Amino acid sequence: MGWAISTRRSAAAATASVAFYAAAAATAQAQQSVQSEGNARRSAGGSQPDATPVNTLPSISVNATEDKEATVGLVARRSSTGTKTDTPIREIPQTINVVTAQQIEETGATSINEALRYVPGFSTYGADIRSDWYAVLRGFTPTVFVDGLQVPNTLNLASWRVDPFMIDSITVLRGPTSVLYGQGDPGAIIDVQSKLANGERIREVEVQLGDYARKQIAFDVGDKIDKDGTLSYRFLGVGRDGNSQTGPNPEQRVALAPSVKWQPNAKTSLTVDATYLQDWGDASNNFLPAQGTVLPNPNGKISPDLYTGDPEFSHYRKKQWSVGYQFEYKFDPIWTFRQNTRLMHLSLDQGQVFGGGLDPADATDASLLRYVGLYQMNYSRFDVDNQAVGRFGTGPLEHTVLLGFEYNRQSTTDSEWMATAPSLNMYNPVYTPITNAIFSGPDAFPRTDTKSTLDAFGVYAQDQIKWQRWVLTLGGRQDWSNTTQNDIAGGDRLQQNDHAFSGRVGLVYLGDYGLSPYISYSTSFNPLVGVKIAGGAIAEPTKGKQIEAGLRWQPAGKNLMLNAAVYQINQTNVVTPDFAIDPTGSTNVQTGEVRSRGIELSGVGNVTRNLSVIASYVYQDVKNIKAGDDTLGKWPVDIPRPRQMASLWGDWTWHAGPLAGLGFGGGIRYQSDSAGAADNSLYVPSYTVYDAAVHYETRNWRFAVNGQNIFNRRFVSGCQSVNTCFYGNPRTVIATAKYDW
Fold first, then answer.
1. Residue 247 above 90 pLDDT?
2. Which of 38, 161, 679, 684 has its CA 20 to 30 A from that of 204?
3. If DSSP codes are grouped into helix, strand and coil, which group holds residue 529?
4. Which residues, in sequence order, are CB contacts of 506 under 8 Å at separation 6+?
5. Which of 511, 517, 451, 525 lies closest to 481, judged by CA?
6. In CATH, what number is assigned to the domain containing residue 652?
7. Does residue 614 have a pLDDT over 80?
8. Is 2 within a domain?
């Protein structure tokens, strides 16, 4: 089964395991709790007692982050993502990792990708302005949500982005989640919680300077509007200018996020919010051949700074906006109604020149075969999620019942032009100018132009049943979807109807000393839009199922959370070629299956008053266990899936004495070797990188310098094929000054 951990990989496991258990031991030996200093948003992580007794049902809130006990420093205590009912994390029967605003600030993250670097099992490619490349979790691509509603389902080159300055927290719910959130792969969802109006007075401005001419200014202001505080507002903004990490073109961003909250009484709450983001940049992602990156090339190593695009042709212009609301009304002490609604739109205009492997016309292996593309895309999405939550008792049982109806509609237009571009000498580059005329020349490919519409409906029900120290969670959901796809260029029209049932059952025991073991079984589905199989039939949705067992430790009176979990996920109905039907491999059948299983350890919180840690370790085994080609028994490689990953971040901050306010942070991230190419014929070496930070905080000011990959390790982060390898991020250093008043 490939579960044995090799000796040469054991160092990473030891690093994470020692950190995990050292944190536990230090907490167990502590003689007294330490009170939190400062507000919870910037708390160093002082002690807080568990606010929820075993037999007390928590109150409902529109956003779990409004609960003063929801997050203390680095540690999240409650979540609305895991059950949609604002539940203590210790009662949720699936693994949840929460990246708080303090963690984002402390580690100096400048994107969601970077904010998730210390989350267990998160692997990704290098920097790319087009996307956060959410990579894989538990072997599959996660589905992305913002404030509980899914963002437009796009190609990676056009993905929805949220600036980290505007994020209150990021929740990763692992395993299949279709029972609450509908269609998606079975690995995880990533739910980004926004900074919204909450009635508090906020005055904050931040300035950043960094490598690649980075210059950024951001602000966050909020307050009550009227004397009684029934109306409040919040307004965030970000402006950034800088250079691309490779290439001569700039990278720029403007982002705005206003919100208004109306709460006339304790029963009613309405939050209306909007966002706007515009990115300008260079679309080059430097797809490089394996020869010269992970394989020998007679000309030597390819420089990580090589620019494979075209200075005049390459461009990336994205606009996105959203408007929505979160409404809550409490009918009585038992029943509460909530409605979350949002309209989103994204448009993209991109010109890209990218590598396609070694040029076969060059016998010296020095030239890169390149392709050129023009992409114009538009995505519009509307979501509404209606929920009724009831809290009541039946004899000795306490129930939290959730009933929901969800509808979403997405419209997409996708126009693409592609052609073969002039080759580029990778060791002595000379850039031949590229113009739009190339798309009407002999090297052009047929233009694609499609319009598609997806309508999806889902009804779901869930009951969280408490009896003494036991919490049983039962849930089920039925989904229906209708997809219409028009190929304008080809004149074809496809209509597809899918439906699926998904469920979850989980059991948690709330034990002594803050221990809570759990076990769960959950399922998922994901439609394969526009995919046909043998006989011309439309492919059925892929199905996922997971069994998971875990143990949380959240000691009373301590600001610390540790988690250990084992899991196995099987995804069926995977499309795979059938060479018995068609020797060319162009005919597909749905007999493929992917199996992912592994072990995850994570810990976050305060070991002592001054020392906080974030630690993780993952061992995973992801394989195609059924396939009709040479991928059988191999690891999927569309995004890196290393067998082992480990990370450790520590921060020491003085809270008293002459050094009060001064702190230092440091981190180490390890990724083991990974497979490259569909038949796993490539070997991508392991790598280790180091991060560091120094910060000083006074009453109104915070100064920080954060460095990532501080020793400038140049490494290949992954290979999809012999033609497509990626270098990881180089060293970056950013200085930040923030003023609150």
1. no
2. 161
3. coil
4. 92, 93, 94, 472, 473, 518, 519, 520, 521, 522
5. 525
6. 2.40.170.20
7. yes
8. no
Q: Which of 684, 702, 685, 701 is closest to 693 using CA atoms? A: 702
Q: Give the span between the Cα atoms of 650 and 664, in whole angstroms.
A: 8
- Whether the Cβ atoms of residue 576 and residue 627 lie closer than 8 Å to each other: yes
Higher pLDDT, 49 or 424: 424
Give Cα separations from 687 to 11, 113, 146, 591, 621 (angstroms).
12, 18, 32, 35, 19
3-state secondary structure of 308: coil
Q: Is residue 107 a contact partner of residue 665, using CB atoms and an 8 Å limit?
A: yes
Tens digit of each residue's pLDDT (9 = 90 or more) over 474-532: 999 999 999 998 988 777 888 889 999 999 999 999 999 999 999 999 999 998 877 77
| 596 alpha carbon, distance to own chain's centre | 19
Q: Residue 661 in 3-state DSSP?
A: coil
**3 state DSSP class of 102:** helix
Output the pLDDT for position 135: 72
Owner of token pair 């000083």: 696
Dist. CA 261–CA 270, nearest whole Å: 6
CA distance 27 to 197: 36
In the chain, count of helices (H) and strands (E)? 4, 35
| Residues of the domain holding 660 | 7-740
Contacts of 717 (CB under 8 A, 6+ apart): 124, 125, 126, 640, 671, 684, 687, 726, 727, 728
Q: Which pLDDT score, from 0 to 100, does residue 285 have?
A: 67
Residue 200 lies in a domain: yes
Q: What is the pTM of this model?
A: 0.88
Question: What tokens does 481 get?
Answer: 């979807």
- Give the strand pairing for 470-487 and 448-467: antiparallel
**Tokens for 580?**
């018995």
Q: Name residue 653's amino acid.
A: T
- Torsion angle in degrees (nearest 10) through CA of 288, 293, 296, 298: 60
Up-side HSE of residue 45: CA atoms within 13 Å toward CB? 30
| Residue 711 burial (C-beta neighbours within 10 Å; 0-12, 13-18, 19+) | exposed
Torsion of CA 13, 16, 19, 24, to 10 degrees: -90
Relative to beta strand 188-194, strand 143-146 is parallel
Q: Which amino acid is at 503?
A: G
H helices of 592-678, in order, are none
| CA atoms of 645 and 124, how far apart (whole Å) | 12
Torsion angle of alpha carbons 258, 262, 268, 269, nearest 10°?
Answer: 10
3-state secondary structure at position 181: helix
The number of residues making up the chain comes to 741
Domain assignment of residue 97, yes or no? yes
Tokens of 211: 């490598």
Strands 315-330 and 335-358: antiparallel
Q: Residue 407 in contact with residue 393, Cβ under 8 Å? A: no
Those residues with Cβ within 8 angstroms of residue 429's Cβ, 6 or more apart along the chain or in another chain: 306, 307
Whole-number Å distance between alpha carbons of 62 and 43: 23
* Structural domains counted in the chain: 1
**Percent of residues in the chain assigned helix, strand, coil, to nearest 5:** 10, 55, 35
Question: Are the C-beta atoms of residues 81 and 191 closer than 8 Å to each other?
Answer: yes
Under 8 Å between Cβ of 129 and 205: no
Residue 40's pLDDT is what?
37
- Confidence at residue 720, expressed as pLDDT on a 0 to 100 scale: 86
Q: Are 140 and 185 in contact (CB under 8 A)?
A: yes
| SS3 call for 10 | helix
In sequence order, the β-bridge partners of residue 552 are 516, 563
Q: What is the pLDDT of residues 221-233, one digit of tens each?
A: 999 999 888 999 9
Cα separation, 652 vs 664, whole angstroms: 5
Give the Cα separation of 509 and 521 in Å (integer). 16
| Strand 167-174, strand 149-150: pairing | unpaired
Q: What backbone torsions phi and psi does residue 534 show, to the nearest 5 degrees?
A: -55, 135
Q: Is residue 1 part of a domain?
A: no
The DSSP output letter for 635 is P
